[in-house]
Write a structure and sequence with these properties.
- This protein is mostly helical.
- It has 2 domains: about 1-15 and about 60-95, no CATH class; about 15-55.
- It is built from 5 helices and no strands.
- Helix 2 (about 15-30) runs antiparallel to helix 3.
């Protein structure tokens, strides 16, 4: 279950081209800086972190489709998967 969540998060992050483009450009800038510009790199890292923190990686189309399915009562629930995930989480917390 954790792998599925991790993969979902990775998929969502890849869909946020705006933030990932900023990160890629900033990483390229950081690679081009010499060690004498470490202060510039730290400032750029802070800028990247604040940019990423300001907007969450959300797939708005998927969220709206899920909201529509829930409101119309057509959202499928697999109770076996839900109970297995809850038991896995409980067992992880116990150990």
């Amino acid at each position: 279950m954790v792998d599925k969540i991790t993969n979902s998060i990775i998929n969502l992050e890849s869909k946020t081209s705006k933030n990932s483009a900023k990160v890629n450009v900033s990483v390229e800038k950081a690679k081009n800086y010499g060690s004498e510009n470490s202060a510039d790199i730290k400032i750029e890292q802070k800028n990247i972190i604040s940019d990423l923190a300001s907007s969450a990686p959300i797939d708005h189309d998927k969220v709206s489709s899920i909201k529509k399915a829930i409101s119309s009562g057509n959202y499928p629930l697999d109770l076996d998967k839900i109970s297995d995930a809850l038991m896995d989480a409980y067992n992880d917390m116990k150990s």
